[in-house]
C-alpha cells in the first residue's frame, strides 16, 4: 500500500509543478501576444508617418519581405522605399489611415506567426480616398528580449 500512496503523492506533486509551469507559460504567451499586437500598431504608425529611423527598429537586420509582385526585398531596400514613399506622400498632401482585421497570432517559443487583413486608405488633397486591402503573413522573432519582424508577405485583395 505504501508504494501506491507514494506514487499517488508523486503524481499529484508532478501535476502541481506541471500546472504551475503551464500557467506560467500561458501568462508569458499572453504577455507576448499583447506586446506583438502593440508593436504591430507602433510599426504601422511609424510606416505611415514615414519615420524611417523608428520603423527600422521593428525589423531584424536580416529582415526580408516578399512584395505583391513577388520581389524579394531586404531591410535596406524597404527603408529606402519608405523614404521615397514618405516624400511622395508629403508632396501629394496625402492623409493615410490603416486598420487591421482578422488578426491571428500563433506563438512558438521565441517565434510567432501573425496573419491578418490590412485596410489602407490614402486621401488626397481634394479629399478623394483610395482604399486598398491586403492579406498578410508576418514572422516575428524574439531576440535579446525584444520582438521584431523577421519576414513578411503581403498580397493585395482584388477590389
How would you describe what is shown here?
- The structure is a single chain.
- The protein has 159 residues and is α+β, with helices and mostly antiparallel strands.
- The protein has one domain (2-156): Roll (Nuclear Transport Factor 2, Chain: A).
- The protein has three helices and six strands; from the N terminus they run H-H-E-E-H-E-E-E-E.
- A six-stranded mixed beta sheet has the order 2-1-6-5-4-3.
- The longest helix has 47 residues, at 2-48.
- The radius of gyration is 22 Å and the shape is globular.
- Mean pLDDT is 85; it is low at 4-20.
Low-confidence parts = 4-20
Number of helices: 3
Q: What is the level 1 CATH name?
A: Alpha Beta
Number of strands: 6
Summary keywords:
single chain; 159 residues; alpha+beta; Nuclear Transport Factor 2, Chain: A; six-stranded mixed β-sheet
In short:
With 159 residues, this protein is α+β, with helices and mostly antiparallel strands.
Reconstruct the topology from this structure.
Blueprint: H1 2-48, H2 52-56, E1 59-66, E2 72-74, H3 75-92, E3 95-108, E4 111-123, E5 129-143, E6 146-156
Parallel strand pairs: 1-6
Antiparallel strand pairs: 1-2, 3-4, 4-5, 5-6
